[in-house]
Write a structure and sequence with these properties.
Chain A: Belongs to the AHA1 family. The complex is a heterodimer. Chain A is α+β, with helices and mostly antiparallel strands. Helices cover 20% and strands 44% of the residues of chain A. Chain A contains 4 helices and 9 strands. The chains are: A alpha+beta, B alpha+beta.
Chain lengths: 163, 106
Amino acid sequence: MPVLDVHRDEEALTVALTAEFEAPPVRVWQVFADPRQLERWWGPPDWPATFDEHDFRVGGRATYYMTGPDGTRAHGWWQFTAIDEPRSLEFDDGFADQQGTPVPEPQPTHAVVTFAADGDRTRMTVRSAFTSLDALHQQARMGMEDGLRLAAGQIDAILKEQP
Amino acid sequence: MFQALADATRRDILARVLHEGQSVSALARLYPMSFAAVQKHVAVLASAGLVTKERRGREQVVHGDVAALRRAGGVLTELEGLWRHRVRGIDDIIRGDSDASAGRAP
């Protein structure tokens, strides 16, 4: 299996994952850099992605939509914040409305991806974190719906207190 | 859900009733606040689906819902699952290269 290690940090609302692929970093880099390859793996199961914009430079944006089994389209965007080919890549990743305008909910995440050569292989790490914990707490105080985000750390603590 | 968990007293109440149901009056004795204030905290937890109330004689007994709490913690699990799926997708693409170059069917 390509996934070697996964670590979830409930306090920092972060998932860190390490995977290994049977190709050098210059090849694995292409699955991010080339939108035609990117759309083959980005969407969740049964929601293939179509990227209609992919401005692959720092500050550039990518926009895409995912098509669900019933034809529903869910729109999203990336903003590239760091690109160091073929070593590392960072981008914000959020959702958009049907016109493609970014929406604050669900919260965007920020991904940091690194590619390290390991012989003929690539060890890729992904660190994906919610971008603004403050915003999550703010939502909590405002009592907004969709509560599934904030309290991950608190929830973990409460569950640990159980005898 | 967020609002329910944003208060330290409510988190403490929830932690106590997850293990074993407790009456509102027993809970009220634990905190330097009125019975009515504790009752209000319990009502907030109940409306978030984190606890259930059961009338037992003259008492109201509060029980925590562990399953609801675990669901709330699921956002990172979802993110992890998504990235695991993506890694499989990338792996399929990379493996497709070598299959193609070796002249085999993908």
